[in-house]
Amino acid sequence: MTFKCDGDSHCENSKKATVTVSFKDEASETFYVKKPPICVVDNPVNIKTDKKIFRFWAENYRNDGSPPVLTFEHYACGNNAYYQPDPKLENNGAYLMVDGNLQVGTSYYYWHFSKDWGGTRRFLDVVDEIPQGTSGDFSDCVLDGCEITIYDKDGNQIYKKKGESPCKVEVACDDNCPEGYLKCSSDKYPGYCCLPCKETANKIRSLGNKL
Fold this sequence. Notes:
Blueprint: E1 8-10, E2 17-22, E3 29-33, E4 38-48, E5 52-62, E6 69-78, E7 81-85, E8 94-98, E9 101-102, E10 109-110, E11 113-115, E12 118-127, E13 136-137, E14 142-151, E15 157-164, E16 168-173, E17 181-185, E18 192-196, H1 197-210
Parallel strand pairs: 6-13
Antiparallel strand pairs: 1-4, 2-3, 2-16, 4-14, 5-6, 5-12, 7-8, 8-9, 8-10, 11-12, 14-15, 17-18
């Protein structure tokens, strides 16, 4: 079988490969591949957070029986959202608030009132997703991330995971460790392990300070 790779290939003509994968704020993972060369595919993805997606919106109602008209719509992410009334604003106007943060600015507020010809009513919902092309603050909804997929020489998928950026894949061939890692003996395959030099040094320094 001809080796094909749509990403970055590593360890051609080697007997094994040592791979270390890390994502932001996550402990790195190290594993060994017995059938190099390997193919590493790194695709950008969006990582959805556990925060709620809020939809602020209002409709204008008329007494002639015609359907209400959507007058504004704003999306934002957070844990808590509400309209903040202010007596200085006309027609029961209120600001849009998410987790205590004012949305858009003080010039951006919405009415909630009723008159003979109908009136305007504002609403606030929790929704599952943000429609494309809508306005709002989406910075807390999704994070920049990547999906790392790794294949061996036979095209078998041996690793796949999504995580927040920055993402990093380090590969060493045969009995070497990736750059920045310390090689140590192990009773497990392949007879050694690779420890990150920086983290190991910090642990040793911390132990020394406790003595």
